[in-house]
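Forum: Protein Structure Q&A
Topic: Joint prediction for protein chains with partners

I've read a bunch of threads here and the consensus seems to be that you should model interacting components together rather than docking separate models afterwards. I'd like to see that in practice. Below is the full input, 659 residues plus whatever partners are listed. Could one of the regulars post the assembled result?
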Amino acid sequence: MRQVVVDQLTQASIYALVGVGFVVVFRATRLVNFAQGSIVLVGGLLGVDVGQRLGGNVVESLLVLLIVAGVLGAALYLLLLRPMLGADHLTLLMASIAISSILGGVADLIWGVNTRYSSLRFPGGAIHIPGGVRYSWTSLCIVGVALVIIAGVGAMIRWTRVGLATQAASHSSVLATYRGVRVNAICALMWGVAAATGAVAGVLYSIQSGVDQSTVSLLGFGVFPAIIVGGLDSIAGVVLGSLILAEIQGVVVFYIGADASVPIGYAILLLFLLIRPTGIFGKQEIVRV
Amino acid sequence: MLGSDALPGHHTATVVGGRETSLRIGAALSTRKSYARWLSLAVAILLLVVFRLITSSVDLYIADTALLAAIPAIGLNMLTGNAGQVSIGTAAFMAVGAYTIVVFNGHVGFVPAVLIAGLICAVLGALVGLPSLRLRGLYLAFSTLSLQYLVAYAVQEYDQHTNALAGHTISTPSVFGFDIASDSAWYVTFAICVLLCMAAGQLVRDGRPGRAWEQVRTSEVVASSVGVRVATAKVSAFAVSAFLAGCTGALYAYFVGNVSASYFSLSLAISYIAMIIIGGLGSIWGSVVGAIGVTALPFILRSLVGDFAGYQSVSGWLATNQYDVDTIAYGALIIVFLIFEPGGLVGLAGRARTVGKRLSSALRVRDRAR
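Posted by a regular:
Agreed with the consensus. Here's the joint model:
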């Protein structure tokens, strides 16, 4: 049991990394990106390829992957979503579902249905924590990489002009344009960031569990509970939400079985929707009829 | 249930003048519309009969599937296109409907079983619609998505506990002593169901509930200030769409004769969203056209490649990757329609008619100038 709690930290860090992608896109475009799961899938598969090409060199592979996935993500926005700038929730939501469908099909065509594992060479061995619990160096490195990237994105949103411009863009794209914010560039950048974090999450996940089509529901739709629990627009919230989700899932899987993992997440999500739809850290949107 | 009390009764409202006027306008509109309404139903009947006369047996099965898909599409389109509420839960409601039949198998007659399945889903739909009173747009997508995952888990567990990993077998249904077993019998059954849904749908949409939904979609604040009960409108829209999805699940169970959990997937739910966008949001004909289009798409793709390319390798590749190509095509079509023609195929037809009118009037002007 104690082992489960410690092991789930790795899962939590990957959830958080995917969740950060949701948050930045939501902050920029007010879109809940249903395509994030497929982005994680395509990014992860791409990451496996990149890792193989570069002989498993961790730093190089991750940097190349960040850039490639970032460019692809931005391109996705510019090609498919830019024509819909200013459309309502419903339209954007359906567009992202459509993108998810396209990416899923493309991934299946290119890479097939086999589960693929990344060959990134992290140090082996494990640390022994008092109490009979062991934690592998690989897991520790995964958590480390995730935290560094999350902190980087968080700092960008919090302290740079880009972060401020993002807020302006989502608040009112028209007003932001008047004040000289290049809304399309900002949105494209945020899509790039989301794709990059998603891809890294995918490849980190593939080291221990492998990526295949089931990853879409596990790391895309499966992360929704974490972002609702944490709050749709808060990075700190997503980290906390991921931790809560991963730990609860760990306990449930331990006692009930692996099939219950995603449903229990959605049960938590429903509960939060009814009690506190904005999540723990989310900003209250004032709408009342 | 259809929300005949979506607008408050005469004695309660204070804005009597405004409400009376709007109701009168509504009544005038619906009398003028009633001709068009019956005409469009007649056209639908004619098309269904003509199709049956000219079709082959292979196409008949596809037609059955398409007609069956049209029923929940009509419901979902009322919810999304008319009432403006998002739902990713269609497949979940269908699963509940189908598993109701699994439980009832052989104990309850065909028609009552389908209706009971629908009613159970309507209640469930109203319950799922309840969060919509506090939540909007994107949050609703989450609550219906939760439903999808929870129901999928429940039916999967049910399959495992009943040792039915190959699915549950459903006995052949019969109505008034006739067995419904052949594709041809199903065609008649589904055609009647779709026509009923279209007729009922048009009445509901042009009536009070439909006008209340339209108002809620446009602006909840305005809706509540002119006396529309927003809560009733939303919940009734959810109930209606869930009812139709539930009935469809039940019909599907009988039609295929075998029910298993894996069919009611998230991608099934998404295919219904694709249908209403491609067909035309807020339009009943759009739902039907979209359902037919999306169901027939794989076959159209296959025949297009067969006709134009003629290459053995291309059609072979397409055959092995059929599922992926379909998935990509759905996605691409949704995007294309969202960007270029938000009105869907029906909107496209409307636009063609406008262009036609303009052309003909331009020609007339030219003739007169001569």
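Chain A touches chain B through 42 residues (CB under 8 Å).
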